[in-house]
Each structure stands twice: as C-alpha cells, then as structure tokens.
Amino acid sequence: MLSVEEATQRIVAAFKPLGSERVPLEDAIGRTMAAAARASADQPPFPSSAMDGYAVRSNDQGSRQIVGSAPAGHPFSGTLGANQAVRLFTGSQVPDGADAVLAQEDARVSGDMVEFHAEPFPGKFIRAKGLDFRAGQVLAAEGTRLSARDLALLAAGDFSHVEVRRRPVIALAATGDELSLPGRPRKPGGIVASSVYGLIPWIAQWGGLPRNLGILPDKSEAIAALAEEECDLLVTLGGASVGDHDLVRTALGAKGLALDFWKIAMRPGKPLIFGRLRDTPLLGLPGNPVSSLVCALLFLRPAIWAMLGREQKQMLRSAKLTGTLDANGERQDYLRAKSEWRDGVLWAKPLPAQDSSLLKDFSEADLLIMRRPRAAALQDGATVEILALE
Amino acid sequence: MLSVEEATQRIVAAFKPLGSERVPLEDAIGRTMAAAARASADQPPFPSSAMDGYAVRSNDQGSRQIVGSAPAGHPFSGTLGANQAVRLFTGSQVPDGADAVLAQEDARVSGDMVEFHAEPFPGKFIRAKGLDFRAGQVLAAEGTRLSARDLALLAAGDFSHVEVRRRPVIALAATGDELSLPGRPRKPGGIVASSVYGLIPWIAQWGGLPRNLGILPDKSEAIAALAEEECDLLVTLGGASVGDHDLVRTALGAKGLALDFWKIAMRPGKPLIFGRLRDTPLLGLPGNPVSSLVCALLFLRPAIWAMLGREQKQMLRSAKLTGTLDANGERQDYLRAKSEWRDGVLWAKPLPAQDSSLLKDFSEADLLIMRRPRAAALQDGATVEILALE
C-alpha cells in the first residue's frame, strides 16, 4: 500500500496546467491567474490629497489667497504660486507648485483668503504618485486564486479582463445498485446517493467545473461507457457492492485503463484507484460518503490545483489536542474533530465516533486531525497536525 | 461619534429575516436554512455491513453453509438459520436472523461451506440502523449556511429540496466624478473605480444578490434617482469629491432619507451613513477603497446576515502580536496584517503602512488586528483581537 504523501505526489505529477482564457474582471472571482498581471501605471497616478483641505506651498508663511477649487476628478489647471492655496478634497489631484495639504478643520476662511492654525511640511497629507503601487509591479502573480480584494486591486490597476486558467472539467459518476436520488423511491436495501452532493460544490470551490454523470448500475457495460467521456479528469464513486472498486477496475481495464495504484495506507479511504483511461486521468474514490469526501480533499483537490497551476500550498497546520489519543496503527488516520480557540491557540477535539459512514458527525466537524502511521499515544495538550475542512 | 459596536447593533436591529424559497439541493450551496430540516427516517435505514464478508449468527460454532449472496441494493430475502451464512459487501443490508459480520479476509470457503479464523460477537462489523442519524433529528438547523458537507448529509436524509432564505438584493452605486471603469479612458485627475469589484463578490459570498448600479456623477439628480431603486439594501460608495458623503446626504435627504447615524469612531472608515430611504435601508460606505471594504466587512456583512436570519457569529479571535504597537487614539483601529503559524499558535504581523488608499497591501494581508479606542501600547507576543479577511 502506498503512503498518502507518495500517492499525492504521483497524482500531482500526472497533471500539467491547462490552457488559459480571458475573462471579464467581474467574472474572475475564484479563478486562477495564468500569467502575472503587472500594473501599467502608477497608483495613484498623481500626487493626491489624503484630506479635505487646501493645497499650499510649505515654504510660504501666513495667510494665502484661494485661487481655485479642485474636487476629485476636476484638477486645478494652473500652477500654485507664492502665497496661494487651492481648495482640495480627499482624492483630489494636488496642483503643480503645491507640496503640502492643510486640513479643512485647521483653516479659517475670510473672503478669498485662508489662514491656518497648523504648520505644513513637504508631503504633508499628500499621497505620493505610486504610493499604492508602481507601473510594472505585479498585482496578481501567476497561480494566484483571485480573491475579492485581488479583484479590487486589479480594477485599480485598470484591468477590465484577466488571463486565467481554463477550469478543469471533472466528470463524476456514482456507481451502485443500492443508490437512489434524494426524494425518489428508495430501493429495497437501498440508500440515497449523498457524496456527490458534497463533491460537486467542493469541485466548484476548488476551481473545477463539475459534470454530474449521475448514478450508474453495477453493470460492466454502464461503467465501460465512461471510457467515452471527454473531460480533464474522470472521478468514480464506489463500486462497493461487488467488492471495493472491483467492477470499476475490471470494466475499465477492458477499455484500456492503465492503473497507477489502487490502495493507500490511510483511514478513512484505502481503496483508491488512480490511473489513466486512454488519455483521461481516472480517480476512483471509495463509496463510503465520509471516505469519498476525505479522499477528495486529499487527492482530488491537489489534482485540480495542479491543472490550475496553483501552488500546492501546505494545508497542514498544527493545533493542541483536547483529550487523549491511543497509538495509531499502520494506516495514516484522519480523525474528524472540532476546533476551539483559547487565547489565540487552536485546540482540536476528536469526535467520539469515527466510522466512515457518519455524515452527520462529518458535517459538524470543522477539521481533520492527521495521525501518521505508528504515531505514539498522545496526552491532552499535545501538538497535532490538522487539516481544515472548509 | 458612535462606537463600532453600537453602530453594528443599530444596523443589525434594523433588519428582519427575509422570506423563504424552496430550491433544489444542487443549487443550495452557501444558502441559509429558513427552517430546520429533520430526518424523516433512520440512516442507515437498516443494519448494514461495515465490511466485505459474511452475515452469521454469533452463537453458532464452526463452519457455516453459505445460503446466499446479498450485494448492496440486493438484500437477502429470507431469514438466516442456524449455522448459515450469507455473503455480504460493504453497505449490504444484514439479513434477519444474523447478528454479526465476519470479514472476507478471515474466511476460508470450500464449496458452499465457509470457515472463519475470527470470533463473532453480537453487532460485530454491523452499522446499526440509525447509527448516522435517527428519524426526527435535525440535519440542518434554521440559520445554517449550507456547506458541501451539509448538502451531502441532507441528500443522505432524502432531501431533494430545501427551504432557504431569499437572498437579499443589495444595490450598489459608486459616486464620484473622478471615477472611470477599468480599461476605459481615464479622466484628467481621475482614477479607476475599484472597491465595487471587491464588494460584488463579497456580497455574493456573504449570501446577498449584488446589483451593480455603476458609477454615478457627483450630481444631485443622479444620486436622488437612487430613491426609486427597489432592493433590500441600498449601498453607496463615496461622495468624497464634495466632502465625504455630503452629496449623498443632501441629495437623498430631499427624497426623505431618515438618517440614523453618519460617523463612527473607527479607522479606516469614520464617515459612514446608515438610515432609511422611504422603505429601503441605506448604507453609505466611504470612498477610499480600503475603508469601504473594511466597513463592508464590519457593517454590510452583519446586515446581510440579519436578513438571512444567520447567527451573528463572533468573528473576532485572538492571536499573538509580531512586533510592537503604539498606544491607540480615540478611534477603533483595524490594522492590515499578515498571519503566521508557529506550533499551533497564530501570530499576526501588522503591515508597515496603513494608509486607507493602499489596495495592494490590503490584497496581501489576510487579517485585521482590531485595536480598541485608547488601547495601551503592546509588546511583541502580546495578545491581540483579530478578524479574518476571507
């Protein structure tokens, strides 16, 4: 059996970044930059006032004559002369000749003259040209997943469109004679297909484009037909009713499945297929709902990120253990747990039951505690490695 | 000037949960439950096998006769008799009469007989009926924001649809003669409108339905026309070019704006309008990009959550300070900072520059350090209150 780390490496190595497409900024949330976006100009593009007030020359003394008013977007056209002032507002362009701004609340106006009870100095209340960013600076690096704040920054940098990676199409098929759709008649000895309803939004959140192929019966022909599916990654769920994945392996083996591996030393999980079906990578997830979702987090997410050219960020962090844990066996274990904050320290408390069929517990957990194979028993307060669930 | 806490309370108190609508489960990600969803049946609906193996009676001894095979979805129709066994698979219904499952790897089959080198006990490798959840249990409480895992759980509970809160329509208008759209010709002394590109995805992430009204010029008629807008909350951005918000207040005042407050003791931010324009609540955010985004996080998000009937979760957590901080002034301060994990402890390092025009720094930050008015100076390692940015 393969270790989780080796399996992850082999999966990530099997993918290359996809091509790119140009999308409007307003559709770019969550998309991944295919190339660095560099600023074409300084921001602010001119020295700009940080206050409502008056542009002045810091060398002048005493009262100044008000020679104009320049709201933001209506710059003063002339050059400020000796003992002159121009009324400015937050964001106004500072006129040529001025080197300071004095605040409105420190000004006393009488006719067209203004006096100040504050002293200017060069640069006072002025946002220098390029203070936010300079022409040529990278605003969003290649591989960046665009956040709301990134989009605001790119807008400020005058980008109406960005070049992002194409979203990988992830085709998803659940297998199992026991499965029915929610709200539809249930079969004798049957259950409702559930994992797919969690996987589809996760795939979208991770940057993929999910395509739901529905539920396939445990019949070779139905499963073999998956070989015709055009997508960037084919994901199967289960096959458990005839032994974990046996049907998927045999039916697709006849269609040319080149198996890379199919067992991983982990819990929940273990039976996990990875291979290539003609030109299409195939990931076979276990049928148990919690197993399939945990395996998706560990193996499907990195695959999607590899196709997006995203950095495979270290998702593991550490926390302190609430309670105790026995020594671990041969398999890497992912315990469902709840987080708690105490004085800036993250504590993780494993849920009492860890069966891989327990979706209700899984929905209430917010992190996984990872235990390496043969990890020693742990006392309350020990440091554990964790993985966030959302 | 109002405190941040008082302003938040007054905003939240001004909203009631909106009505509800029924949506298919596959469209429910991120939506908010309008009523608790209770399981209509136990899950699993029958005792089910946790292993590939054989259903047996734990009181029997020695070898058993194999009387059938029952893959998941194909239950055994009879009752298990003395010294009988039925072949089962993970997820198979355990037949009547059986009270244990023995694993396939512990079985030796010869003809229709099977021997085991493992001992059964009542309940061994059986997932009891209702182990995951029982009929009547709440699978998603009212006010829950539905996660991918919640959707998987609701599917398992046979929900094809859920009753969720209608999404509040948030109409958003930027004001300012200095503003242009990204990629379009820029005005003299002008800048590109940026905040709205961050606010729109944030509003969607928080559960609202953003409606972009574009950029309005600094003209009373243009701003007054907002009074005709039908939405759940009207948000304006800026008005800075003629003094912060003066134009918004005066133009909408003539249309019946009932002002609740318009200044908050905070940085970045301060000028913030909240009131009611006829029947529509109005939130006027500052024009500076970082100020508007921070104020949206502090005041717009709770407003949306109030309309969704979500719990106003305490978003503040604590972290340890990297570096030192001077004593704070009269305004509550929100410093842009970067996080760092050391041994399960979260450290927060303030960025060196904190000007409210710095979008690039804001995009690189991942949290805000909150400093209360007149907070004392802090040393490295002191505990600080933080707010996550994504």
Describe the protein.
The structure is a homodimer of 390-residue chains. Chain A has helices spanning 4-13, 148-156, 195-205, 220-224, 246-253, 289-308, 359-364; strands at residues 20-24, 37-38, 48-49, 53-56, 64-70, 84-88, 100-103, 107-110, 113-116, 126-127, 138-140, 161-165, 169-175, 179-180, 191-192, 209-216, 233-238, 257-263, 266-267, 271-277, 280-285, 316-321, 332-342, 345-350, 367-371, 383-388. Helix content of chain A is 18%, strand content 33%. In chain A, the strands form 7 sheets. The first copy, chain A, has a 6-stranded mixed beta sheet, with no helix packed on it. Chain A has a 6-stranded mixed beta sheet with strand order 16-13-17-21-20-18, sandwiched between helices. The relative contact order of chain A is 0.13. In chain A, a hairpin with a 2-residue loop joins β20 (271-277) and β21. With 390 residues, the first copy, chain A, is α/β, with parallel strands linked by helices. The two termini of chain A are 28 Å apart. The first copy, chain A, folds into 4 domains: 4-15 and 167-308, Molybdenum Cofactor Biosythetic Enzyme, Chain A (3-Layer(aba) Sandwich); 20-42 and 132-165, Molybdopterin biosynthesis moea protein, domain 2; 48-127, Molybdopterin biosynthesis moea protein, domain 3 (Molybdopterin biosynthesis moeA protein, domain 3), CATH 2.170.190.11; 316-388, Beta Barrel (Beta-clip). At the A-B interface, α2, β15, α3, β22 and α7 of A face α2, β15, α3, β22 and α7 of B.
